[in-house]
Amino acid sequence: MTKEEAKHKIEVLSQQLRDHNYSYYVLSESKISDYDFDMLLEELQKLEEQFPEFAFEDSPTKRVGGTIAKNFETVKHKYRMLSLGNSYSKEDIEDFETRIKKLVENELEYICELKYDGVAIGITYKNGKLVQAVTRGDGVQGDDVTENVKTIRSIPLQLKGNDYPEEFEIRGEIFFPKNVFEGLNKDREDAGEDLYANARNTASGTLKMQDSGAVAQRRLDCYLYFVLGENLPFKTHYQSIEKAGGWGFKVPTEKDNYVKKCKTIDEIFEFINYWDTERNNLNFEIDGIVIKVNNYARQEEIGFTAKSPKWAIAYKFKAEKVSTKLLEITYQVGRTGAITPVANLAPVLLAGTTVKRASLHNADQIEKIDVRVNDTVFVEKGGEIIPKIVGVEAGQRDIFSEPTQYISTCPECQTELIRKEGDAKHYCPNEWGCAPQIKGKMQHFISRKAMNIDGLGEETIDLLFEQNLVENIADLYALTFDQLFELESFKEKKSQNIIDGLISSKQIPFERVLYGVGIRYVGETVAKKLARQFKTIDHIINASFEELIAADEIGDKIAESIIHFFSIESNVELINKLKEHELQFQLSEDQIANATTKLEGLIFVVSGVFSKFSRDELKASIEQNGGKVSSSISKKTSYIVAGENMGPSKLAKAEKLEVAIINEDQFLEMVG
Ligand code: IVH
After folding, report:
1. CA-wise closest residue to 383 among 478, 297, 285
2. Disulfide engineering: 285 pairs with which of 67, 117, 255, 655, CB 3.0-4.6 Å?
3. Which atom of ligand 1 is found nearest the CA of 120?
């Protein structure tokens, strides 16, 4: 293929994929099968690898993420991110109208929209390209989460048409579709992990994840509801939404009744009442309705308070509440040993689903509402998927009922529970002898950032544990092919895959083994620091508290935790067993020979494509020489190592903050 042909093919494929993305994620219509879509994507990916010079900065292949952010840069909002006043009744809405009518003479038209229960985002477009996405933060400044937002497929990277303003910001709400959130929790349940309680908080946490590849897998979605900019080409809010739809954004339409023009409060209330019940059938959470004055000129006359526009108001739905009988209180043990009491209920219909369990949070909560088995309780569903018990119907209590006695021993291993001062929850301290905790440790050990063992997933760990084949991480290395092959549904290939994965994990570098062992507070970065400074596990085991805190970035809390960990005999034995299995417990000769402190104290951002290194090699080299790698440019950045095709937004930011830009040869000189 000639260069010309490749360039053309990349253009055609990129456009086709953009169109399919739009049909699928915005219009919810699929024109081709998932398989055909993946094939097109793969073809584009291959071409882009071969001809990186022709790849678009906003190529559809970038949707898979991959950028790692260590921290998110704080950015000032160009326009403050305001909130809305709340209303809860027809009278509140009437008051809202009375206030407005004092300020304008003309007849008013309102737009009613759904109030999406998600995370607010402001996205800036320049010349039709997505350049920045910032969270609400405190309304004045928020976090730059551009790379993560770019992975959300219903948000266009390149706008359609040509009638969009040169520069504008669009605001909306990022959320988990209900089925996606349920799927996420199902996976966690299968893996024995604690469930996420609340879709909004999980969406917010997801936006702050450091690995945009992981964000891409989470399948967030976004509705847009507000366009801001100078000299915008519309006269009404409704027009702005319609136009934004034409540019490729996901916006509400009259067709699905997600938006309605209203003249009277009765009309507004029809919309409110419709959605108050119908919301249970939506595939996303809404917590109310937003009412906005449609005409921009009227909006301007009405104006703002310090916190919110006076021309708009939110109507909040009441949380649905039902009563039912409490059958039993059971207690769950999480992977950290935390105990959660759960109310098992006589099944009852709440917000469109049958509820059988509700959270009771902790011992204090049980005492506070004095809830007892056999009570008739009130169950409420707010944003949480697990409904809450909010009270007890006093008159219904059995005269012989006794106050609930909180458990004092672990329901899994019968160890006496402890509760540290200031902690809301009880804990089971039997870290190494309590099933959910043991499984949790093994699951951490095999996880991607630790040993990343091919073929071994959380479900397999559960199975191996239940079959008494493994009790700790060292036992994994004693597994034999025959033991695996005998398990139900374990074919030859799967069994061999696990054995091979275990063998090759013996080459995983020391720092990741150290992280995988699971010492409290020793995360990925701390493990790297420890490995580099102490070089062998024995030096760490033998280090005194003073020696530990003398090390770079190791504070009292971490040092105490390390000392405590190795003061437990069984932990040292575990390390010895792992040593016998020949895992890496010291820096490799290469790591020692090449390690320098030449870049100590310097923070680098790597951008673009390099000819002498892969990006990962370059990052490893920075760390080998004592420097730090960050993914976003800030005032703290010392150097940007720029290859070919450095992103224009990074370049602009580097210039603005006056950060030095060097090429790979200059970098080599620094470490040479
Ligand atoms: S308009 C200046 N429309 O709810 C007007 N906000 O509680 C800005 N929200 O800050 C907001 N759905 O984060 C608007 N259809 C909608 C919305 C919506 C959800 C969020 C938004 C806002 C908050 C107010």
Report:
1. 285
2. 117
3. 13
CA dihedral of residues 664, 665, 668, 672 (deg, nearest 10): 180
Taking the C-alpha atoms of residue 637 and residue 248, their distance in angstroms, rounded to an integer, is: 35
- Ligand 1 binding pocket, CB closer than 6 Å: 82-84, 113, 115-116, 120, 173, 225-226, 290, 309, 312, 314
Measured in Å, residue 144 CA sits from the centre of ligand 1 at 19
Catalytic residue ranges = 115
* Model pLDDT for residues 76-135, shown as the tens digit of each residue: 999 999 989 999 899 999 999 999 999 998 889 999 999 999 999 999 999 999 999 999
Number of helical H runs and strand E runs in the chain: 26, 20
Convert the pLDDT of each residue in 53-73 to its tens digit: 999 888 888 777 666 666 788
Fold observed for domain 435-505: DNA polymerase; domain 1 (1.10.150)
Domain ranges of the chain: 3-64, 86-316, 319-427, 435-505, 510-593, 597-671
- Distance in Å, CA 83 to ligand 1 centroid: 7
Q: Which pLDDT does position 66 carry in this prediction?
A: 64
295 and 235 in contact (C-beta within 8 Å)? yes
Distance, in Å, from the CA atom of 571 to the CA atom of 565, rounded to the nearest integer, reads 7
Measure the CA–CA gap between 225 and 237, rounded to whole angstroms: 9
Architecture of the structural domain at 597-671: 3-Layer(aba) Sandwich (3.40)
- How many other CB atoms are there within 10 angstroms of residue 616's CB atom? 9
Among residues 26, 199, 22, the alpha carbon closest in space to that of 118 is found at: 199
Mutate to test the pocket of ligand 1, among 80, 81, 83, 84 (most ligand atoms within 8 A of CB): 84
CATH architecture of 86-316: 2-Layer Sandwich (3.30)
Which residues are CB-contacts of 400 (< 8 A; sequence separation ≥ 6)?
none
Ligand 1: which of 119, 221, 225 to mutate, judged by most atoms within 8 Å of the beta carbon?
225
* Residue 225 Cα distances to 238, 271, 278, angstroms: 10, 17, 21
Q: Which CATH class is domain 510-593?
A: mainly alpha
